Amino acid sequence: MKFKPVFFVIFFLMGVWGSSVLAQPPVDDMSGPPDNHRERLRQWVQFRLVQELDMSEEQSLKFFPRFNALDDHRQETHKQKQQKLRELHNLLSTIVDPDQPGEDMERQIITALEELDTLEQEALKKRNELRAEMMEVLTPVQKAKYVIFEARFEREIREMIQDVRRHRGGRGHGYNRTQD
Length: 180
Hints:
mainly alpha; 70% helix; single chain; 5 helices
């Protein structure tokens, strides 16, 4: 089942399945879609997961709070990463001579890069912990089905993004570029 609404694409870009799926440069408007769109997509994904994994009610009651915690973590991590990337982009935009940025500017850049790296390491560690907790609820067969579902869902989202980009005639994201 393919959804064409743009808010689903934006939702994905905001980190539903993590920024590791698509390494995107920062965008200027990170406010994202309204919460009701996010919640509707989450409900749709949950409905599909119950069907595909053939979960019992007991499993669902244990699985989905963990699934939601993982989803929320991905969303928050993506927002934090985008903020750090914007800060780094702003730092770079203040450099007058890129070949000789100055020691102070280099220190600021190094600090920003270290903060970004720390954020990514901590986020990955937390993501792995949350995912392991979520997977504890599933049988081995359900785990395999979940992994396949997740990969297929990510592929479908990437295809929708490509369709939107083709329709719009461009990438549809990235830094604000000025016409020279």
